[in-house]
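Support case: user asked for a sample of complex input and structure output to validate their parser. Sending the pair below.
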Amino acid sequence: MPLTLDALAILDAIDRRGSFARAAEELDRAPSSLTYAVQQMEAELDVLLFDRSGHRARFTPAGRVLLEEGRALLGAAQTLENRTRQVASGWEPRFALALEALLPWAPLVPLLDAFYALGQTTEIRVRQEVLAGSWDALVSGCADLVVAGGAPPPGAGVRTRPLGVLEFVFCVPPGHVLSRAGKPLTQAEVAAHRAVVIADTARNLPLRSAGWLQRQPRLTVDDLPAKLAAQQAGLGVGALPRWLAETEIAAGRLVGCAWAGGNPRETFYLAWRSGESGRALDWFVRALSQPGVFAGVFDAE
Amino acid sequence: MPLTLDALAILDAIDRRGSFARAAEELDRAPSSLTYAVQQMEAELDVLLFDRSGHRARFTPAGRVLLEEGRALLGAAQTLENRTRQVASGWEPRFALALEALLPWAPLVPLLDAFYALGQTTEIRVRQEVLAGSWDALVSGCADLVVAGGAPPPGAGVRTRPLGVLEFVFCVPPGHVLSRAGKPLTQAEVAAHRAVVIADTARNLPLRSAGWLQRQPRLTVDDLPAKLAAQQAGLGVGALPRWLAETEIAAGRLVGCAWAGGNPRETFYLAWRSGESGRALDWFVRALSQPGVFAGVFDAE
DNA sequence: CAATTCGTTCAAATTATTCGAACATGCCGC
DNA sequence: GCGGCATGTTCGAATAATTTGAACGAATTG
């Protein structure tokens, strides 16, 4: 073990304080102890780290490289130490939260702010998933906690908590024939028009369909912004979450249509694998369950 | 110093060999020595790294994090050790090569391949400089070795070695009036047309002019690709290095014009600060001096 | 030129680490 | 179910390592 963190810390102190003597003072060790440690390392590496020709010792080029890049090593060691302590204290090293792509990202911001304010170094990953993709991510372990719509997959192993009901508004471009119907639309009326749908991200679970008919012509896109853009551009029609549709309709970029039997709705759930525990999981379950987090997005459950 | 590289290496061996006993064998130490080191680290961190409830010790989650991320630390330490030795043996930690922007990048590729094949950790930076900018980079220390055109700056301190002569072809867009001259062009004839020139990157040395007249209208761009694009787009005229002009002329994207008194030429030099030494410098001086490196770019010197 | 600061050396003291033997525990084959 | 085995730990002794403080020579400072 030619390098030791202890010796790298000595180099660091020598550089910062400017001399062996002052570094020794900072480290509460005798100067000869530093001499010993440095010579030890020089012998192991078979490299001179200091130029001792003058009165005071100066770093050689090699010594300077070891000093500077050693600092990165010391920093990484410090980080690892913190991380280990936190994992031991129950905080997960990594935590993945999957959010249904139909939901806005904004409500997460204050939540993440609050989480980071705890000072934990748990690394958060937020991923967007579509339809069954959220459940898929959960059961496959790609996500530790999901906010997903529709019924959870059978076979259990998943704990859920209902969050609220998302209402959809069927939207068409301004001037579209469907906007002139004058009465609530039915599926039969809509079937002739191209639907813009978001591709399900599920890789293992059976795909779901939502808001479109099997024989309807359709344009498939990856996410909600793409769907919105496509509908704005007049490439097709389709239902949008109310929180999004409202601003678009108010801005005149889309027209909302009534739907026969009332607007479609879907219940959304918070879900995690049963049997898992961790303080980040607990924290996020509690935080996301708080009423008001998704204010303006969900109706009362 | 709660973490030590030695202890991390012990964790690594325990995981790879599957038990304290076999790890001890690999490390040529008694098993109780490993127990001691692990307990030491556990005490410093105040974290249990192994679950000792069963027959054989198993990593706790915290222990596993420390193990896995500790391996990255061990790897970095090994790299730093190599690098320190290499620097001590004369290889520069960093090496900056400035290449005149009028020259193609391609000849450097096999050279860099060969350099990296040496297994050195010297970090190479290649920068493009224009006209006096190369010399400026050299004397100011921003570059350790340059391939630059024209006379080196006075005041010495710089060693040079001629590499070859770059020939320029005066190019105009297809159909341009100058292309119909029928005889070699003179500066007076060209002066009325906008010249596309590359801005000198020098920050301290006096700027140079090349290939254009003081009173000529001009469009200044940053590099050779921009100059080429501008000339192709018919924004102006100007001399291009022969290696570049030939393909453009052959493709019909530009037209080459004869120049009164023969095409302009400029000698290019390899140059470095005298008094500096280093194995990367030696290596690159030797490699770039090899005949054939710039084949097709330079004429014989 | 004296006073100071510096880094090193050396022997002694102290501390940390290692070892080996003894022990307790759980696993496996019979 | 019951020895045999391999495991990891404990403990005291042995060994190796680090640390200390005093002394020294060299370079710097006022």
